[in-house]
Amino acid sequence: MRVRMKGLNKVTKRLADGRKVAYYYAWKGGPRVLGEYGTPEFLASYNAAYAKRRNPAEGTLLALSRQYQDSSDFQNLALATRREYARHIEKSIEPEFRDLPIAALADRRVRAEFLAWRDRQATKGKRHADYAFSVLARILSWAFNRGLTPCNPCERPGRLYKADRADKVWTEADEAAFYRHAPPHMHLALMLALCTGQRQGDLLRLPWSAYDEKTGEIRLRQSKTGRRVMVPATEALRAALAATTRVSPIILTNSFGRPWTSDGFKTSWAKACKVAGITGVTFHDLRGTFVTRVAVRNGDLNEIASVTGHRVADVRSILDVHYLNRDPELARSAIRKLEKGTKTSN
């Protein structure tokens, strides 16, 4: 009888005499499975490895990470966030620290070990390293608050990656190029983002039932924050929605009329931008573009926040730090006001 061994990782190596030898590991990065493939000894070794993985030794970081993943704090995260956390835990954190004793966290030197690990992770990218470290810090913070660890040595580490989205807003030329060259089934996604300021994930899940044709209002609950927002659709967006054939309960669909998967949309969006010759800006920048365009038109911070779901302080930060500091329209407006004041004084 053939037994399927989930996660079994086969690695083939060539010996000095030219022969190829296969080694098996319980999972990628896991312990080696002993014995000849397919024998009872091999199966017993495989099962023992997974039994140890499912029931980690008490008092270790591995046991702590499993407790965290079983907690309501983890389960209440958005599905996409849980998946991303679990990926970093399995691929980056557990292989490195699974046997680390919880008692060792009280040693001040362990912080240096964690930071050195983050630096090694940076070979995969600084954003990857920061994210992996933030997941580890989240686990330890959760444990510390429940008295499961003596301290959290991952507090306030600073960041390796510093994003600079200054001046990263979609121009009207970018928008026109996208409408001119991108496939028609991608157009509504651009308009929804520019007219509502919502995140990509929320727009991809937005159902027709969230849109009231009579009032022109879009109501949704943001998956990341849990905030409920109401966005009145612009006349252009209302016209675009009225012209869209409803082939699915979800508003945005691919060329086959089916709802997008996150990866499918990202791939198609990147191709559409390439065809349109749009570089240097992302779909996420459409959210900042919405904030900037409303602000340039004298939109109030509270008004913007009520639509995007940001805190008012976050809207101010976006405008002050990332976008408006280089917006040419603000510069022109400032000079017009200066000239008007000068003429009045004369």
Query: How many alpha or pi helices?
Result: 15
CATH class division of the largest domain:
Mainly Alpha
Low-confidence stretches: none
Strand content: 5-15%
CATH names the topology of the largest domain as: hpI Integrase, Chain A
**Residue share in helices?**
40-55%
Order of helices and strands: EEHHHHHHHHHEEEHHHHHH
Rg: 26 Å
Give a description of the structure.
By secondary structure, the protein is mainly alpha-helical. The chain folds into 3 domains: 1-55, no CATH class; 57-162, DNA polymerase, domain 1 (Orthogonal Bundle); 172-332, Orthogonal Bundle (hpI Integrase, Chain A). The protein is 53% helix and 7% strand. The protein is built from 15 helices and 5 strands. It has helices spanning 40-54, 61-70, 72-75, 79-97, 109-121, 126-145, 172-181, 184-196, 200-205, 235-242, 262-276, 285-296, 301-308, 312-323, 328-345; strands at residues 9-14, 20-25, 211-212, 217-221, 228-232. The chain has a 3-stranded antiparallel beta sheet with strand order 3-4-5. A two-stranded antiparallel sheet has the order 1-2. Helix 5 (109-121) packs antiparallel against helix 6 (126-145) and helix 7 (172-181) packs across helix 11 (262-276). The longest helix is centred in the middle third of the chain and has 20 residues, at 126-145. It is globular, with a radius of gyration of 26 Å.
